Amino acid sequence: LLSHTSGIPDLMARPGWGMRRTTPATLDELTEDSKRFGLQFEPGSEVRYDNAAFNLAAAIVEKASGKPYPTYMRETFFKPLGMKDSGLDLDGDDHGVIMGYANFPGGLAAQPNANTSIVAGAGAVYSTLDDLLVWQRALHRGALLTPGSYQQMLADHAPADMKPNERSHPRRDWGFGIFANRLGDQVQPSFQDRQIYHTGSWGGFRNLMLYQPDADVTVIVLSNNYHLRDQVFLISQQAMAEALGREFPTTLAR
Question: How far is CA 88 from CA 37, 68, 120, 245, in A?
């Protein structure tokens, strides 16, 4: 589930499932939705980005812990780490979250009432820059995982013979809920330092969180405009290059 190699289809790509975008759903309901569709491929034979798999992982957490997923996350991670401005938005409240926006032919438009319940295990966390930095430091400095679990998280779980395509090019490592690649190859001037990262985009937001393990450097870029993907990426690489003492990138590589 965590390496995107389960074969379980991403529900958002399924015809007719789009109604869920405006209808709040529980993890049990999302699990039932996943049961309606067969596997896309034999588990472990391919890799395909899959939000539904992370919803199922969150459902497993609920069953194993006996607690609602938001409660488990708060009691196990957010509260002990002092992440006072972080939580899961599954109830439709705004939780003080700023408005997200998107670019349309008529101009910039607000994107209110994003239904994050349908990505409960994949993208429903709200947070702040300060809290995310706390999370990054805890994750990569040994406060959350054993050394063995940490290495398993970072390992590449994609099939060895996987061919690059429009969703995996340039080739990247597919860890557990995390990716690794030389992202500096995608800017000019380029740099070759390996970066551990994940993006985040939903309901008018476009974010990117990076970590360079050799230098123990974290870069976090948050944007409340869904269509600023290229700008967010370039800013992230400019910040990383500056922190590492590399030549400052000015453009994306095309």
Answer: 27, 11, 8, 36
pTM of the model: 0.91
Measured distance CA(239)–CA(91) in Å, rounded = 35
Nearest to 34 by CA among 3, 10, 4: 10
**Does residue 113 register a pLDDT over 80?**
no
Kindly report each contact of residues 185-188 with a partner whose C-beta sits within 8 Å and lies 24 or more positions away, as own/partner. 185/253, 186/233, 186/237, 186/252, 186/253, 187/234, 187/237, 187/238, 187/241, 187/249, 187/251, 187/252, 187/253, 188/249, 188/250, 188/251, 188/252, 188/253
Q: By CB neighbour count within 10 A (0-12 exposed, 13-18 middle, 19+ buried), where does 19 fall? A: exposed
Counting Cβ atoms within 10 Å, is residue 23 exposed (0-12), middle (13-18) or buried (19+)?
A: exposed
Query: Residue 149 has which token pair?
Result: 């679990």
Beta strands in 72-226 (DSSP E): 87-88, 101-104, 107-110, 125-126, 173-174, 179-181, 187-188, 195-202, 205-212, 217-223
90 vs 133 pLDDT, higher one? 133
Q: Residue 201 to residues 35, 103, 219: CA-CA distances in angstroms? A: 26, 14, 17
Residue 68 structure tokens? 């609602």
Q: What is the pLDDT of residue 89?
A: 85
